[in-house]
Write a structure and sequence with these properties.
2 strands; single chain; mainly alpha; 2 domains
């Protein structure tokens, strides 16, 4: 099952730019005396592929890049990553991350990786947001942190799933400890879980 973050989606593009040009050339040809005998090659030579189709292509690219900006922001917020750590995660420089945040294009490999990490985070977002501290620096295998695993190219869903299992197990242990402490102190007062850590 694939989960996706809510990204901005482009409006359905218009696909009639070349046809508008064809109709215009035919009308001009009829009015100019050629009888409307105009080939598609002449239309493309005269008018290109149509200004509408070029604008649509540019808007689709911009919409895709805008979606990556949203996903990059959600990854950085969920994992509490600095720009340098995000650069380490994708194997690029800090200026490249700033460029991506400003909506510039992303290489296909990094775009695929960005989507994979965002899709892995999406179903676990509530769990990650409830954590205090830098989630990406939590050890998930021995001393290897989530950030290190992801930077090495590990499967994002598997690595974030491991972290999620650890966080759930820790939350269960905290709840069990709180119940035990509550049973010991009885009605003397409530247990402050923040003091427990």
């Amino acid at each position: 099952m694939t989960y996706g973050l809510r990204s901005w989606q482009p409006v359905e593009p218009r696909r009639n730019g070349i046809w508008q040009n064809a109709v215009a050339v035919t009308l001009i040809g009829v009015l100019a005396g050629t009888g409307g005998n105009v080939s598609p090659a002449q239309i493309i030579k005269q008018f290109g592929t149509g200004s509408a189709s070029r604008a649509v292509h540019d808007s689709q690219v911009a919409a895709t890049d805008q979606g990556f900006v949203v996903e990059l922001k959600s990854i950085r917020e969920a994992l509490r990553l600095s720009v340098a750590e995000t650069a380490q995660l994708f194997g690029v420089s800090r200026p490249t991350i700033y460029s991506w945040q400003n909506g510039n294009s992303i290489s296909p490999d990094n775009a695929e990786r960005l989507c994979a990490i965002a899709n892995a985070i999406a179903p676990r977002l509530h769990l990650l947001e409830a954590q205090v501290g830098r989630v990406a620096h939590r050890a998930i295998e021995g001393r290897t942190t989530l950030l290190q695993k992801l930077a090495e190219g590990a499967n994002a869903d598997h690595a974030i799933g491991q972290l999620s299992d650890i966080l759930i197990r820790e939350a269960t242990q905290r709840e069990r400890l709180a119940r035990r402490l509550q049973a010991r102190i009885g009605n003397r007062g409530a247990v402050d879980l923040d003091l427990l850590g």
